[in-house]
Write a structure and sequence with these properties.
Strands 6-5-7-8-2-1-9-10-13-11-12 form an 11-stranded mixed β-sheet, with helices on both faces. The termini are far apart. The chain has a domain of 255 residues. By secondary structure, it is an alpha/beta fold. The protein is 37% helix and 18% strand. It has 12 helices and 13 strands.
């Protein structure tokens, strides 16, 4: 009965509740992973079209795991945890559906907070779709996640266009698939509305900001972790008229900020409120060069530790070039980075900064393997 009550309570899964399909089964189905024969969705996996979906998604995940996910986890354990300790809460406001990289860098977190302009979305019952609708929607899901799994970032406009006509829309099905790739058990998937006073209400309402809550366990018997996604505009003008998101975030306490492929928005005065919020509420920030400018950290006395390399922003972002950042890397400040990160996704060209405020002095800095004495 507990399993059925969890599904029935979920607005997103209301249609599916009658079939007693768990969020874990849904995630596995979307990700192309084999379900037990007892699952109502198992018969749908027998078709040649679904088998091809599973094959293509498995290949995409294998490449992502090899190039990004596994190196991220190894790097986090060797380089990040010794400096800032185990991260329990992550705030990734420009992340959209990119839960997968947050899971890679911060595997022990108990709370992941993501935000973006992408809609929460919906997931139609696969059993109610025609074969043509089902296979087209699965193909669209693969296409919408291909950029993330290939280059470790996404393009908002392209993803919204890809999913617009699909039966699996928005960030919801993407996050379910990503959790399934990591073998997580998904206990709950619920839709909420964030009110202007910073409180969350179950269900969907036109009077607030759409939100999604997922609860999962990374291993059997592990403590549950939560994911919150908010569809929200965090420009100054939007926050002025609706401060609910900052109110809710402020109640969560200190966090680890995470910024990647953030379009350099936080370097604009029109995004100063969210920039100042992150600088005031973060005990560390992990980012590429498209996040907060190096000058903003230095003006506040933050210590910045450099990884990877810095060349130039992409052509469409050339006005955000940071000579001070290039100077730091040219002086030999960068530690090795074994994976691609951000817009410069090629390994060896990526920039990653770990910034720590004055009151959170980093622990002893491990010596990079390349510079350790031999013998």
């Amino acid at each position: 009965m507990k399993r059925l009550s969890i599904i029935a309570a979920s607005i997103l899964l209301s249609v599916i509740s009658a079939y007693a399909i768990s969020p874990t089964e849904l995630g596995a189905f979307l990700a192309g992973r084999t379900l037990p024969e007892s699952s109502p969705l198992a018969p749908l996996q027998a078709s040649p079209e679904y088998q091809e979906h599973a094959r293509q998604y498995a290949a995409m995940w294998f490449r992502y795991d090899e190039r990004y996910f596994a190196p991220m986890r190894a790097w986090s354990e060797a380089e990040l945890t010794p400096r800032i300790g185990t991260v329990s809460q992550v705030t990734y406001l420009f992340g959209g559906p990119d839960l997968i990289s947050a899971l890679g860098l911060f595997p022990a977190a108990r709370l992941y907070i993501l935000g973006g302009l992408e809609p929460v979305g919906k997931l139609d019952n696969p059993l109610d779709l025609t074969p043509e609708q089902l296979h087209a929607s699965l193909a669209t899901l693969r296409k919408s996640t291909e950029v993330i799994l290939s280059f470790s970032h996404f393009i908002t406009k392209d993803m919204k266009n890809d999913l617009a006509a699909s039966s699996f829309q928005g960030v919801f099905p993407i996050m379910l698939a990503f959790l399934s790739f990591t073998d997580a058990r998904i206990d709950a998937a619920e839709r909420y509305t964030l009110s202007s006073n910073g409180t969350l209400q179950p269900g969907e309402s036109a009077s607030g900001q759409p939100a999604l809550r997922l609860v999962f366990r990374s291993l059997p018997g592990a403590a549950p972790a939560e994911v919150y996604y908010f569809q929200a505009n965090v420009a100054n003008s939007a926050l002025k008229s609706n401060a609910g998101l900052l109110e809710w975030l402020g109640r969560r306490g200190p966090t680890t900020g995470y910024l990647k492929a953030a379009s350099y928005l936080l370097q604009e005065e029109s995004f100063s409120h969210i920039r100042d919020f992150l600088l005031s509420h973060s005990n560390a920030i992990v980012q590429d060069d498209s996040g907060i400018a190096l000058s903003a950290f230095r003006s506040r006395g933050w210590q910045v530790i450099f990884f990877g390399n810095y060349t130039t922003p992409l052509d469409i972002f050339t006005k955000y070039d940071q000579p001070a950042l290039r100077s730091a890397y040219s002086a030999g400040a960068g530690f090795p980075l074994p994976f691609g990160f951000g817009y410069r996704w090629q390994k060896g060209e990526s920039t990653l900064l770990l910034a720590v405020p004055p009151e959170q002095a980093p622990r002893a800095i491990p010596v990079p393997p390349s510079t350790r004495p031999q013998g």
